[in-house]
Amino acid sequence: xxxxxxxxxxxxxxxxxxxxxxxxxxxxxxxxxxxxxxxxxxxxxxxxxxxxxxxxxxxxxxxxxxxxxxxxxxxxxxxxxxxxxxxxxxxxxxxxxxxxxxxxxxxxxxxxxxxxxxxxxxxxxxxxxxxxxxxxxxxxxxxxxxxxxxxxxxxxxxxxxxxxxxxxxxxxxxxxxxxxxxxxxxxxxxxxxxxxxxxxxxxxxxxxxxxxxxxxxxxxxxxxxxxxxxxxxxxx
Length: 236
Description:
Layout: H1 5-18, E1 23-25, E2 33-35, H2 41-50, E3 58-66, H3 86-89, E4 107-115, E5 120-127, E6 135-137, H4 146-157, E7 160-162, E8 191-196, E9 201-206, H5 227-233
């Protein structure tokens, strides 16, 4: 990681101020990213906002992440398959299960901070731990803009934010089942919604979409895909 002088100074200040509370994560884009325990989140966030040396007054974004099968890809294949591409071809209803035991680093919330005073940016990542449902303290009291961001992460990933003043769905329908951005949620969803003119109301029905994938599952090894032709096409 190669940081400019300003960010090197910021990293040194963070290390001196927070010590082992913040663990720096290697970056390939020359940005500062830190991981911290969720028990320290509100305290650290408040200090990053209020202390003049940091002055991260603005929470630009907060997003949920599901690291299920992180680093693995069933889509990367050199042969035909009739068993892969599970989210695209398998019909399975996935709903939150109170008995599920999560990996402690499956779900996380990522916070993107901006200091208008110093023109610097910082990223924090907090894992939810093994709790089911996943729970992280709310930072609405630190940055009010977190209100809708936390509702979005709750809606799409099922992450609960303890202390949020009004935690409810924000993008999906009131009766939506499950959390659509979880990696085990089926691409076709669980139910279909339509307006029935005869009944004069919205009705919910089982999904009628035939599970399928829109990418080819057979990779042809002919001269169109040779390395020489690819390099020629790239102008090299």
